[in-house]
Design brief:
The structure holds two protein chains of two kinds.
Chain A lengths: L1 H16 L5 H17 L6 H26 L7 H18 L4 H25 L4 H19 L5 E3 L4 H4 L7 H28 L7 H23 L6 H19 L1 H11 L1 H6 L4 H27 L1 E3 L7 H11 L12 H19 L4 H27 L3
Antiparallel strand pairs in A: 1-2
Helix pairs in contact in A: 2-15, 3-9, 3-10, 3-13, 3-14, 3-15, 4-5, 4-6, 4-13, 5-6, 5-13, 8-9, 10-11, 14-15, 14-16, 15-16
Chain B lengths: L5 E12 L2 E12 L3 E6 L5 H8 L7 E6 L2 E3 L4 H7 L1 E4 L11 H5 L16 H14 L17 H14 L4 E5 L7 H16 L3 E5 L3 H7 L2 E6 L2 E7 L5 H9 L6
Parallel strand pairs in B: 3-8, 3-9, 6-7, 7-8
Antiparallel strand pairs in B: 1-2, 1-4, 4-5, 9-10
């Protein structure tokens, strides 16, 4: 018993001192599910989860960019507006001018990338704080968005490629196949890692830990597909989001570019001394963040079947940054994972959706989300300072 | 210990900042396999000298010779590429990265194709081998974050990192300034082992007993000039103090 207690304690400690821990956000999600499910049994139904996912895919995409920004110790306050502007450009080209969806999307995304480049340029060239540069961007690009939409104000999206983005669903068997492929790829990567470590004569990683991880993924993936299949099925938008986040997760954890992100966020001076091109990496992240914002904007317009001067406004930006932080990304740079974007978005989505089910107004939702954000940051800060200082 | 030929030579180096003569006529060489201690009072020019050798600032006059050939460093990366590793007092480690990631920061092993995965296994094996060679027993876990290590362990990691590029010269700026007694002993032993590997080591230090313990030669700077170049085993700490303060002339 004593020994088991010790093992649990060590595990908690390793979780808390790790680069990124799913523990706090995982517990939050579990508690929220239990609370809302007890109060309203429809909360975890396939129907409601499908809604929750389609409401939050755009936010999760934008938050993924926010995680990358926070990793290098910067912040981008223009992502909300960039998502709205890109969507407005794309829809007005596609609907009002009659251009093809592909051309329209390419132009909208290119404009977003150019905005990211401009933000990155001012931050790296003149050493301005990203906070101020992107705040200026927020105002400027909102003005541009109003100009794009001046003649119409609101543009409705007719049936077509863009409207189908949010209304495409996998068949039940396709849904299961997608989950099985994900589990297979994950298992294969773990198996590969075992093989490579063995060949290099290195100490093998814990077999039990790996099996638990695979089983946990299988349980969540298959369970989720089953729930969603009881309603409309797994949405194409969710598949897209998961693929995007998986690819970016690979880039951040396994490539040199990813290692550079963490180094820049952890110790800028050290990173530049070893010859990392800090400016180039930063500009790249500003561009990637803006492209993700534009992508989120496209999906948001597809869900609402319209763009307006409201697109990308309201609390979208703040929720994107809140999601990254609630998910476990450090505000101080160098610590986090892009999965935090999805987990943090889920927390915000759970609160919003659960309170809707219970007929609470948006005033209560804002207060609760604010308190959750505050506690996430506090818990992170307290635990880190307690366990990190040694020697 | 085998002391070999000159690996680094500073020949007649001058450096002025405005009206201040930071360094004038500096003559200093480091041989392969020896530890040279650079001492001097605050403002004597030690840091300026290290910055010139590290390629951070260019000299106004004089040559830097590396392995017998005159070299011009346009930046710190030039010096690193030539084979001069510098360990600054702040260590420049990323606390949020593992020991392995820190050691290979900026020169990760990878197949060269952009966005292909890093070869973590090769890097980990190399680190284990290096730490074993350096005989540093106190670092057992190498996937631990550097932020969780003690001051001495961090200094060890910074020194080990400088060896990844297989340098011929290692410059250390006050390597033991912030360490406890036991950690200091470990780091001094490690510096000795660097020289045993045939590396020329230049250590800046304020601590005279430590300098006498670790070095083969002591070079004393005073007001931007080299005022003494001692063989360590022939001197006492009084000689070093006298040279630093200028109360006695040794040239």
């Amino acid at each position: 018993m004593q020994k088991q207690g010790q093992v649990v304690k060590l595990w908690f400690r390793s979780q808390l001192t790790a680069d990124f821990s799913v523990l706090p956000v995982g517990i939050s999600l579990l508690l929220l599910s239990i609370i809302f499910q007890t109060l309203n049994s429809r909360f975890l139904s396939g129907e409601n989860l499908a809604n929750l996912i389609s409401q939050n895919v755009p936010l999760a995409l934008i938050a993924t960019g926010s995680v990358l920004m926070l990793l290098i110790g910067e912040i981008d306050l223009s992502v909300g507006v960039v998502s709205g502007l890109a969507a407005s450009i794309i829809i007005s080209l596609n609907v009002s001018k009659g251009w093809s969806p592909a051309t329209s999307i390419a132009i909208g995304v290119a404009v977003a990338a150019a905005i990211g480049l401009s933000n990155g340029f001012f931050v790296t060239k003149f050493g301005l704080p990203s906070f101020v540069v992107t705040l200026a961007g927020l105002l400027t690009w909102q003005g541009v968005q109003f100009t794009v939409l001046r003649s119409s104000g609101t543009i409705n999206i007719p049936d077509g490629f863009i409207s189908s983005l949010m209304s495409t669903y996998l068949s039940p068997s396709m849904g299961y196949n997608f989950a099985l492929i994900a589990i297979f790829i994950y298992s294969l990567s773990i198996f590969n890692n075992f093989r490579k470590r063995k060949n290099a004569g290195l100490k093998p990683r814990s077999v039990r830990g790996s099996v638990i991880k695979i089983l946990l993924l299988a349980f969540i993936a298959l369970g989720l597909v089953r729930l969603l299949n009881s309603s409309r099925g797994v949405s194409g938008a969710l598949v897209f989001l998961l693929i995007v986040v998986s690819v970016i997760d690979y880039i951040t954890r396994r490539t040199r570019f990813g290692r550079n992100l963490f180094a820049i966020g952890g110790n800028l001076e050290a990173a530049s001394r070893v010859g990392i091109n800090v400016k180039r990496v930063k500009v790249a992240v500003f561009i990637i963040g803006a492209i993700l914002a534009a992508t989120g904007g496209i999906f948001a317009s597809s869900r609402l079947l319209a763009v307006s001067t409201q697109s990308g406004g309201s609390d979208l930006l703040l929720n994107a940054i809140a999601a990254a932080v609630i998910g476990g990304t450090s505000l101080f740079g160098g610590r986090g994972s892009v999965w935090a974007a999805i987990l943090g978005t889920l927390v915000i989505g759970f609160i919003s959706n659960g309170m809707d089910l219970m007929n609470f107004g948006s005033e209560t939702k804002l207060i609760v989300t604010g308190l959750v954000l505050l506690s996430a940051v506090s818990v992170d800060s307290v635990l880190r300072s307690k366990y990190r200082k040694r020697g | 210990m085998t002391v070999g030929k000159k690996v680094l030579e500073l020949d007649n180096i001058d450096k002025t900042f405005g009206a201040v003569n930071a360094l004038s006529g500096i003559q200093l060489s480091v041989l392969a396999g020896e530890v040279v201690a650079l001492v001097g009072d605050n403002g004597a020019g030690k840091s300026t000298l290290v910055k010139i050798a590290a390629g951070v600032i260019p000299p106004d006059q004089g040559n830097i010779l590396f392995d017998g050939e005159a070299v011009v460093f346009r930046g710190p990366m030039d010096a690193t590429r030539a084979g001069i590793a510098v360990i600054y007092q702040d260590l420049a480690l990323c606390d949020n990265l593992s020991v392995v990631s820190n050691l290979f920061l900026g020169r990760e092993i990878q197949n060269g194709i952009p966005l292909s995965p890093l070869n973590e296994e090769a890097m980990e094996s190399k680190v284990l081998e290096l730490l074993k060679e350096l005989n540093v027993g106190q670092i057992r876990e190498i996937d631990i974050k550097v932020g969780n290590l003690s001051g001495g362990q961090r200094q060890t990691i910074a020194i080990a990192r400088s060896l990844i590029g297989e340098p011929k010269v290692v410059l250390l700026d006050e390597p033991t300034a912030a360490l406890g007694v036991a950690q200091k002993v470990e780091v001094l032993k490690l510096i000795r082992r660097l020289a045993d590997r045939g590396i020329g080591v230049l250590v800046i230090s304020h601590n005279i007993s430590e300098v006498l313990e670790v070095s083969d030669r002591v070079v004393v700077l005073r007001l931007g000039k080299v005022v003494a170049n001692f063989e360590t085993k022939k001197i006492t700490s009084d000689d070093v103090v006298a040279a630093i303060t200028g109360s006695k002339s040794f040239n």
